[in-house]
Write a structure and sequence with these properties.
Strand content: 15-25%
Distance between the termini: 57 Å
Bound molecules: adenosine-5'-diphosphate, 1,6-di-O-phosphono-beta-D-fructofuranose, magnesium ion
Strand order of the largest sheet: 3-2-1-4-5-10-11
GO molecular function: 6-phosphofructokinase activity; AMP binding; ATP binding; fructose-6-phosphate binding; identical protein binding; metal ion binding; monosaccharide binding
Helix content: 40-55%
Subcellular location: Cytoplasm
Cofactor: Mg(2+)
Largest sheet: 7 strands, mixed
Order of helices and strands: EHEHEHEHEHEHEHEHEHEEHH
Family: Belongs to the phosphofructokinase type A (PFKA) family. ATP-dependent PFK group I subfamily. Prokaryotic clade 'B1' sub-subfamily.
Shape: elongated
InterPro entries: ATP_PFK (IPR022953), ATP_PFK_prok-type (IPR012003), PFKA_ATP_prok (IPR012828), Phosphofructokinase_CS (IPR015912), Phosphofructokinase_dom (IPR000023), PKF_sf (IPR035966)
Number of helices: 11
Length: 319
């Protein structure tokens, strides 16, 4: 394969730029041409496709977001939309596509492969909600951003002897809350995978106060409740002064960590090599520091598991 395309799709994630850079440079090194598609699948449908060169990806490894822009594209979910995309791909003579995105983007990649366009997926989402891979690009950065916010919040909560509820992203996956909670020394972590009652949380906070804790931090994944609401219920249930903080999109931007940059570079190199051999319908992942690829259908059929071991560790650490 000599001519490939790259696009970013769904919610952006720090490390997407490092991935684009690596795709372009590795492909060029091996004598392949790369076309950048703007705005996710929209760009494929509308022909927003431009040739990229090693110089067009200069100075982006350290930048969050994605220079190709991203989008959620409803038209690509229709047969007509996908047919238009295939037409554009053929018009440009593109032989394979690399899609950096989350589970939704991979459904699109799967359908594109079925239409005869070899497509390879790179896991780009802060949520870490893909079952087949241990880590996704952007997760490490988002966790670090959440932890530095928790550090700041902790200072003022300690001074005022308050409880704080820090709401982080993660609609169906509690990994950001779990990792940021452990690294930030949270007293309570609330995740969608393990529902708990407000009574249980209040009881744990009051028990902590009994043991001499002057302030407490609850890290709440958005899928487990709303910061404002949980904060009010906790204040009512404990009598402790409580404040909510919603981190929101702050955790989706910012310079990617070294870990995300290196992971993006390694995964992208792997994706380019697959396409260079004409292999498509694969997702690239990492397990135990090893980069691997897996059939898309098989990877998407896997069920996510939540680390109960880390969750239980967090409870013991909050003693
Ligand atoms: N079932 C599907 N069929 C075709 N395309 C899809 C499908 N699901 C998602 N997509 C495409 O992928 C895009 C991104 O999906 P989304 O779920 O929003 O984000 P993410 O990829 O981050 O999970 C969608 O806007 C759409 O263009
Ligand atoms: O970009 P929006 O529409 O604000 O979406 C917010 C959502 O996007 C995410 O950041 C990433 O989700 P996806 O990977 O599904 O795109 C979620 O954590 C969050 O709930
Ligand atoms: Mg998703």
């Amino acid at each position: 394969m000599k001519k490939i395309a790259v696009l970013t799709s769904g919610g952006d994630a720090p490390g997407m730029n490092a991935a684009i850079r690596a795709v372009v440079r590795i492909a060029d090194y091996h004598g392949m041409e790369v076309y950048g598609v703007s705005r996710g699948y929209n760009g494929l449908i509308n022909g927003q496709i431009e040739k990229m060169t090693p110089r067009s990806v200069a100075d982006i490894i350290q930048r969050g977001g994605t220079i190709l822009k991203t989008a959620r594209c409803e038209e690509f979910k229709t047969e007509e939309g996908r047919a238009k995309a295939v037409e554009q791909i053929q018009k440009y003579g593109i032989e394979g596509v690399i899609v950096c995105g989350g589970d939704g983007s991979f459904r699109g990649a799967q359908l594109l492969s079925r239409l005869g366009i070899p497509t390879v997926g790179l896991p780009g989402t802060i949520d870490n909600d893909l079952a087949y891979t241990e880590y996704t690009l952007g997760f490490d950065t988002a966790v670090n951003t959440a932890v530095s916010a928790i550090n700041n919040i902790r200072d003022t909560m300690t001074s005022h002897e308050r409880v704080s509820v820090v709401e982080v992203m993660g609609r169906r996956c509690g990994d950001i809350a779990l990792y940021a909670g452990i690294a930030g020394g949270a007293e309570v972590i609330m995740v969608p995978e393990i529902p708990v009652s407000i009574d249980y949380i209040c009881q744990r906070l009051l028990a902590g106060k009994e043991r001499g804790k002057l302030s407490s931090i609850i890290v709440l994944a958005e899928g487990a409740g709303h910061g404002e609401e949980i904060s009010e219920l906790v204040e009512k249930g404990t009598g402790l002064e409580t404040r909510p903080v919603v981190l929101g999109h702050v955790q989706r931007g910012g310079t990617p960590t070294c870990r995300d940059r290196i992971l993006a570079s390694r995964m992208s190199a792997h994706a380019v090599k697959l396409l260079s051999k004409g292999v498509g319908n694969r997702l690239v992942g990492v397990k135990g520091e090893k980069i691997f690829d897996m059939d898309i259908d098989e990877a998407l059929a896997q069920k996510r598991t939540f680390s109960k071991e880390l969750y239980d560790l967090a409870i013991e650490l909050a003693n």
